[in-house]
Amino acid sequence: QTNHYSSAPPQTLVLTHAQSTTTSATMLRTLMVLAAAGVVATAAVHGEKDMAATPPVPVWPDTWQAPFKETAGILSHGNTTGYTWYNWPTKETRTDRLNGKNDRYCGSVKSDDTPCSHIVTGGKRYLWFPKLDYCCDCCDE
User: pLDDT of 22-45, one tens digit each?
Assistant: First the structure.
């Protein structure tokens, strides 16, 4: 039998490269098994019902508004900022973009670097270009 240990003191274990690689792989497998066991133990402690419970469905407010930053890349690539408004009771939305050139709807109508608004009301989407004094019916349901 070949001794793979050096002449180091008995309390110190020195492994050859082959043993070290094998030992590292074994330790990794052991850590993975222990981690999986920890997940199972956590599920057992907390109860499977708690771990598998579905979180409540979020409820959006009836009306809200928010600024946004957007990176677009369907018709062309670019960044813009804007603001959006949402009103569920009236079924209306409005989204203003500082530059509509890279928006897939606005950019398909006007390719200028110009502000563009989506206004959705009555089941129709309108595109408004305020600086160009131009509005069009884009699409509907």
Answer: 444 444 454 444 444 444 444 444
